[in-house]
Design brief:
By secondary structure, this protein is an alpha/beta fold. It has two domains: 138 residues, Rossmann fold (3-Layer(aba) Sandwich); 108 residues, OB fold (Dihydrolipoamide Acetyltransferase, E2P). Strands 2-1-3-6-7 form a five-stranded parallel beta sheet. The longest helix has 14 residues. It is globular, with a radius of gyration of 20 Å. The N and C termini lie far apart (40 Å).
């Protein structure tokens, strides 16, 4: 059996990952699913380390690299993230792999095979190199979007964008001055190339700029409703995103 620990702060993503792992490798046994740096550190101190650790880089209470600063992890590691600027040489070491969200089944299977090939070796990786990567990540964020309007091209700076949204399989951006333009990116792709310190995907349909939030209403069952610059529609933060949104807004 491949004893596996999943650390992912969004429950739907964790459940989907567990399902994919078992599909690509029936010998996978998910021993636990955690959602934070703190719970992971406690777990590693109290339990036998798994064969495989699959974790998101950005967790509810911080960066997952903090786990490795507090405990010595003796597991093969697969990092997952929505931001492709992390995918550089630091992740080409033998004991770790890297998968861009949404997780591709074939790539996940390849990662499991890599683990099997290394099953008789001791996991080792350079944490300092990974930390350097995370600290320099902002240089890769998209700074502007080229908008095609008929035979003309208009450039919209990222800091002029109040929100992105999808409608009937098409994607659009809305600016602070009230204009909306179609873009040639899916929201998944947009989420991967913009600065997560500034933008947050509140649900499947909307990504919003922090500066565009005019008001936050707390509804029953702690659901969050937003009033956002540039749209008259009240936007709901999905239940799955609510906790991480609160963490993001409180930075």
């Amino acid at each position: 059996m491949i004893r596996t620990l999943i650390i992912e702060d969004e429950e739907p993503a964790a459940l989907r990952l567990e399902k994919l792992l078992i599909e690509v490798e029936p010998s996978v046994e998910v021993v636990d699913k955690l959602e934070s740096v703190g719970s992971a550190v406690t777990w590693f101190k109290e339990n036998q380390h798994p064969d495989l650790l699959v974790l998101d880089i950005q967790l509810a209470d911080g960066i997952s690299f903090d786990i490795f600063k507090k405990v010595k992890v003796e597991s093969f590691v697969i990092f997952t993230t929505a931001y492709d600027e992390y995918a550089i040489k630091a992740f080409e070491l033998n004991s770790i792999d890297y998968l861009l969200k949404p997780i591709d089944k074939i790539k996940l299977s390849n990662s499991i095979q890599k683990l099997k090939n290394l099953s008789h070796t001791t996991p080792q990786f350079d944490l300092n190199e990974l930390i350097k990567t995370i600290e320099s990540r902002k240089t890769g964020f998209k700074k502007r979007f080229a908008i095609f309007i008929g035979a003309k091209i208009k450039s919209v700076e990222a800091d002029q964008i109040a929100f992105f949204y999808s409608l009937e399989k098409n994607s659009f951006l809305g600016t602070f001055d009230g204009h909306e333009y179609p873009i040639d990116f899916s929201l998944d792709r947009v989420e991967a190339i913009i600065d997560p310190e500034i933008f947050f995907r509140i649900n499947r349909q909307y990504i919003i700029n922090y500066r565009a939030i005019e008001k936050i209403n707390v509804l029953s069952k702690s659901r969050l409703e937003l009033r956002v610059t540039g749209t008259s529609e009240e936007l709901m933060v999905s239940t799955a995103k609510s906790h991480s949104f609160r963490q993001w807004i409180d930075k």
